[in-house]
Structures are given as C-alpha cells and as structure tokens.
TrEMBL record:
Keyword set, alphabetical order: Oxidoreductase
Keyword check for Oxidoreductase: yes
MF term (GO), any: oxidoreductase activity
Classification via InterPro entries: KR_dom (IPR057326), NAD(P)-bd_dom_sf (IPR036291), Sc_DH/Rdtase_CS (IPR020904), SDR_fam (IPR002347), SDR_oxidoreductase (IPR051911)
Pfam families: adh_short
Ketoreductase domain mapped to chain residues: 6-188
SUPFAM superfamilies: NAD(P)-binding Rossmann-fold domains
Coiled coil location: none
Protein name: Short-chain dehydrogenase/reductase
Superkingdom of source: Bacteria
Length: 282
C-alpha cells in the first residue's frame, strides 16, 4: 500500500545519505525541505523549488538561520511531519592532540546543530500533536571503542542520548523520536576533503595512527553500507506506527551493538554485588 504524502525536513541533503534520502522521497511523492550550506548544490541535484521541493541554504551553526529554515518550511508546505538531522562530519585525533576549537567545532555541527533543529521544529510538531524526529548518529554513538576518534564518538553519544531523552519527553504529545546507528556507509564521509584530522599529532599513540590509516587507506570506498538502502530503511522506519527508538543499520552495526550489549552485561553481572553494596542499608 502506498504511503500518504508527508513533509520532510532534511539537513545535509546535497550529498551522501541525505541526497539519497531526498531522491527517494521525491520519487515516492513526498514533499521535502532540504538544507545545505549552498542552495546551488541542492538545485543542481534536485531542480528548482516547487510545490514538493524546497531548497534551503542554511548555516546549521547559526540559530537564527535554523529557525528561519523551519519557519519557511512550515510557511511553504503548511505542515511538518518528519525531521531528519543528517548533517555531520568526522573529527580524527587523540584526546591529547585535539585542540579546544577542533572539539567545539565538531560538537557545533554534530550535536548543537541538531539540537537547534529539534528546538525550532518542536513548536510546530506540538501544535500538530504529531511528527517524527530522526537523528542520524553512528554505531560509534553506541559502541565507542575506537582509538583516535574521541571527539566524534562523544558528539554522537551526545546525539544518541538526546534522542532517548527527547523520545520520553514528547511521547505524550504524539511525537516520535528515532536514533539511527549506521555502520560504515559508502559515501565521501571519509574522504580527505570531508574528514577533519587534528592539526597536532602525537607519535606515541600508534593505535590511533593505525586507525586513521585504516579508515583512509582501506575502509574509504569499501564500506559495507549502501547509502541508498539506508535511505530506504529510514523511510520504512518513519512509515510504521511502532517506529523504533533505536535503529541499527547494517550487519556491522548489528554485530558491534550486540557485542557492546554483551560486554555491558558481563560487567554488570561481575560487579553487581559490589555495586549494590553502595546503597544505604535499609
């Protein structure tokens, strides 16, 4: 059965998963407001604005720019059904090497920008008593044991945690929230132009250096995840009544999530008696 047409707001829509998502949604007859740093990149990819497509040039790190984009979307389409926070970038570098500016810039895009989108979208969703917020995290936002990726991991954990809290907060309003944890996806995400590498390197951290080399020299271009299929999975999750709060995407993501759950369970059981001994004795 064909799904009813809905209005989607998608950040980071000019390339990668965001571009695939917009393409599929327009093919299926949905209405899409798409954001990018330049409107030209959007019109080049999807054509001029129309009654089903609204290209928006947005600075996601500017609260006013985000607010105006949401307001224009509601004015253009009259409704807002699904919000997808897709924009983000990877920052590589050991915790000791990363500068304060590098960490804060990573969080500005990966966490504070989605937070702003959600904050400005919620009044419209609350008035409607409906809507679905989908935040693109990463498997590293659930299983974070990757040397040299502390800033990126932390920003994605923050986004995942925000989504869990948000889901509890808005459920009574008829609004749903989902956090997506993709494994490695075959886009330009790890290309030299997209991946931020710490300006300062510390030779002592061999594991972090090996991890960077692996991602640049071996993984880039050979990621298992298909961005088009990931886009279809997101659409599927948004179309069902019982949408998942946690949506893992890809075999690698599933395996890593299961391994993390198992490791947490082992630690929980091994330390249960000592842990519970910290409570007051009643």
């Amino acid at each position: 059965m064909k799904q009813a047409s809905r209005t989607w707001f998608i950040t980071g829509a000019s390339k990668g998963v965001g571009q695939k998502l917009v393409t599929r949604l327009l093919e299926q007859g949905h209405r899409v407001a798409a954001t990018s740093r330049t409107a030209a990149s959007l019109t080049q990819a999807f054509g001029a604005e129309s009654d089903r497509f609204l290209p928006l040039e947005v600075d996601l790190t500017n609260d006013g720019s985000v607010r105006q984009a949401i307001e224009k979307t509601v004015q253009w389409f009259g409704v807002l059904d699904v919000v997808v926070n897709n924009a983000g970038y990877a920052q590589q570098g050991t915790v000791e090497a990363l500068s304060d500016d590098e960490v804060r810039s990573n969080f500005e895009v990966n966490f504070f920008a989605p937070m702003a989108v959600v904050r400005h979208a919620l009044p419209q969703l609350r008035r409607q008593r409906s809507g679905h917020i989908i935040n693109l995290s990463s498997i590293v936002g659930f299983q974070g044991g990757y040397a040299g990726w502390g800033s990126y991991v932390a920003s994605k954990f923050a986004l995942s945690g925000l989504t869990e809290s948000l889901a509890a907060e808005v459920a009574e309003l008829g609004i749903r929230a989902t956090v997506v944890y993709p494994g490695p996806v075959r886009t330009d995400f790890l290309s030299n132009g997209a991946l931020a590498v710490a300006k300062r390197q510390i030779d002592d951290y061999a594991e972090a250096k090996a991890s960077l080399d692996l991602h640049l020299d071996t993984l880039h271009g050979h990621q298992a995840g298909d961005p088009d299929k990931l886009a279809l999975l997101i659409i599927q999750a948004a179309s069902v009544e019982s949408a998942p709060l946690h949506l893992f995407a890809g075999k690698i993501a599933n395996e890593l999530a299961a391994a993390k759950a198992s490791a947490v369970s082992r630690d929980l059981e091994a330390w249960r008696r000592s842990s519970e001994a910290t409570d007051f004795a009643e």
